[in-house]
Predict the structure of Histidinol-phosphatase.
Amino acid sequence: MTFKWDGHTHTKFCYHGNPAEEPAYLDRAIELGFERYTISEHPPLPDKWVDNPRLMAELAMPMEELPDYLAYAEEMKARYAGRIEVTVGLEMDYLYGREDFSDALLDRYGSRLEDVVVSVHYLPGAGGMRCIDFTADDFREGLLAHYGSMDAVAEEYYNHVEKAIDWAAGLPMRKRLGHVQLIEKFREALPPISPELIERRLTALLPKLQETGVGIDVNVAGLRVPTCGQTYVPRWFLAACVSRGIPLIYGSDTHKPEHVGADWAWFETAFGTSRAES
């Protein structure tokens, strides 16, 4: 039987999420039979990381809120002890060229973290760093026009994913790669990426994941996105991870209580008789 763990969730500290208090999420997780629940909020970003003040204000909590977030997550862990295992974490962005910012943040707060999801949300593009999952129009203007083709954007994306794995390898807590196929969030609204390119680049990740012990966030959020309609990790890739012993952790990527446990059945049946990492 698969260990029931939601390893990628968000909170009221997410400025593009929902103001619901954490018990609404945790009570729902308990109702659905989850045994472990990782709280993994977006940490602060460097000042003016993206050149869009409105978007910048929505991407992550300000630095002064990070201690409050950690205290809140730790409070939930203590409050729900014996009912569900709550683990304290963050969804760390891989910040190309500003790894020092993330290193400093983890030097200060890393001892309080049990789980880290490492994600690629940003690529260099028109005018500086661009958010790959903001809107299809923004992707088209800031990335597709800048690189010239979807395949060229995808190649750069996977370059950053490889760098993210290398960076995550040095972290002492449990770590996993977030939504490895986020680049396809707008696949129904943008030109297609070559399937051969995707297969080639994902296959190349497997030995790196195996060697570093970095797991995979089996992120189902794409199923709820009208322009995506699929999970952010393909079934064939899951099977390849299983064959190499790479940990697979379900991630609802919940941004509101009703997302908790979403599409768990897909995860449980997606890779045959293998089981999630516990």
